Amino acid sequence: MFVVDRGDRRLEELRNQAVVATDMSFTISDPRQRGDPLVWVNPSFTALTGYPAEDAVGRNCRFLQGRNTDGAAVRRIGDALRQRRSITEVLLNYRRDGTAFWNQIAISPVFDCAGDLVNFVGVQSDVTERVVVEQERRAALAEAEEARAQLRMLAEATTQMTVALGVVDACERLARSLVPELADLCAVDLLDSPGRGVPRRLAVVARDVEDDERLRELGRLRNYHVGDPSDTGHVLAGDRPVLVPELPERGADRYPDDPAAAAVYDTLRLRSVMVVAVRARGRVLAALTLLTQHPYGRRYSLRDLHLATDIAGRAGLAIDNARLYETEHAAAVTLQRSLLPEVSDVAGVQVAARYLVGVDGNQVGGDWYDVLDLPDGALGLAIGDVAGHDLRAAAAMGQLRGVLRSYAWDGGRPGSVLDRCDQLVQGLEMAAMATAVYVRVEPPDADGARMLCYANAGHPAPLLLEPDGTLVRLDEQRSPMIGAIRSLGRRTGPGRAEAVRRCSPGTLLLLYTDGLTDVAGEDADQRTALLERTLAELPLGAAADDVVERVLGVCSPPRLRDDVALLAVRLAP
């Protein structure tokens, strides 16, 4: 604040000379006149702005403002002047020749000895270089942050698709990873076969969940095909990616010959679109469509298109791997099931079997079961698990199953049957070990009861539920796994140890493999207890089919990593 008084004239003259001679631009305005015009400027003002004193005096300094001057800064200056207080602002001004410069303006009020406002003094400084450097620094920081954000998005999308369980899951994970970071709406149209076929809109994700079905409906109405005139059709045919920074606001302009699609388009409020091909091994697998919406959606640029193309390239490998996995997995399941027997009706018993294929393998496994209506009237039951999840395990399983059927058909005792299977593994030098249980159920006696004889080679103990609800774990006389102990010659004894139990009519027998109880990250004893509890809580006399369905419904792990074989037998009451 400056106060004008009648000080020493000599000192005042020196101050005036200093103001005139300084390199800093000084101006004085008179707020008592209408419009607060300039009444004096020093030569540095002319050097800074290009306006001589005769062109500046008598005018408000607003003549330095232009089309890009910040209106908010101008309003802050006006408020300070009305409140008669000092203010400093940096704003874009224009010289007489029209060139822009960044002007730092410091304005202070001047009062007389009576406290009345008589002038405003302004000091102007050209700070263009400082502002440009600061703007470049901010731009560099913003660009670096955008690059980091893009890397994070790439990493997130890659991570999400890496753990996908199948093609649909991979497409959905891709779409979810891009909304809302890169798009307000995202759709993935997958071809039936790489490079050809009919596309299916396999995944749709929207910032607003109500737009999900609208975007699906738009896909159905447009009925995209490879090579059709649409953006998606061109991309699916292998053409260049599509970038439309500004879409038409009206659906009728976008789809003039398709009123239904135009109506859906209007509800989506679309602003900008990119369509890029999802490729793998040189073939187009799908089209990835990214859209933004009014009023806040971004306007896509070439930089966004390059990012989307990079993401689509990474997605292509994940989707193609998922497709190959599903194809091989389906073939493996078909082969696996072809090695398992059809469970046929057996007089006097109910039999039900299920086989579930684990999701972590695309090859056949070694789990198996068998039901034999033996010629001497007995019933043979077998279940086993060959170590490994590959073709060698499947081959070993097929051989073991065939040998066990042959020896069982000859009327062999359970211990002897498993022993001879053991000799096969060692004699043929099959690089496999296996667990197995073989049960021989004799024909009913005069009371309808049946003798049950079994041998167990390292397999989970079968469960027996008596008609009165008593649960028995058949864990007697267990022996080592098949192939676990090398023999020095042909075994001649009575065979592996056996256990015998008399079963009343209505008894239920359950055989299973360890995929049901040995689950990674969970306690095997607790899962076995759950299985036993589930069996014990079944209604008395429950049919064999109901038993296996209930057991699988309660005891199957959330993510089935290993195969599961389950066999239930109910002796007729």
UniProtKB/TrEMBL annotation:
Recorded coiled-coil stretches: 130-161
Pfam families: GAF, PAS_9, SpoIIE
UniProt KW keywords: Coiled coil, Hydrolase
Segments passing through the bilayer: none
SUPFAM superfamilies membership: GAF domain-like, PP2C-like, PYP-like sensor domain (PAS domain)
SMART domains recorded: GAF (SM00065), PAC (SM00086), PP2C_SIG (SM00331)
Ranges where the PPM-type phosphatase domain occurs: 350-571
Annotated PAC domain residues: 85-139
PAS domain sequence ranges: 38-60
Top-rank lineage group of the source organism: Bacteria
CDD domains named in the record: PAS
NCBIfam families: sensory_box
PANTHER family per UniProt: STAGE II SPORULATION PROTEIN E (PTHR43156:SF2), STAGE II SPORULATION PROTEIN E-RELATED (PTHR43156)
Protein name listed in UniProt: SpoIIE family protein phosphatase
Gene source species: Pseudonocardia adelaidensis
